[in-house]
Amino acid sequence: MILITGGAGFIGANFVLDWFRSGEDEGIVTLDKLTYAGNLENLRDLQHDPRHIFVRGDIGDKVLVANLLSKYRPRAIVNFAAESHVDRSIHGPTEFIQTNVVGTFNLLECAREYWGGLGDGDKGRFRLHHVSTDEVYGSLGLSDPAFKETNPYEPNSPYSASKAASDHLVRAWFHTYGFPVVTTNCSNNYGPYHFPEKLIPLVILNALNSKPLPIYGDGQQIRDWLYVGDHCSAIREVLANGRLGETYNIGGWNEKTNIEAVKTICSVLDKLRPRDDRKSYADQITFVKDRPGHDRRYAIDASKVEQELGWRPAETFDTGIRKTIQWYLDNSDWVKGVVTGAYREWLEKQYQKQ
Ligand code: NAD
Ligand code: TYD
Question: How many domains does the chain have?
Answer without folding.
Answer: 1
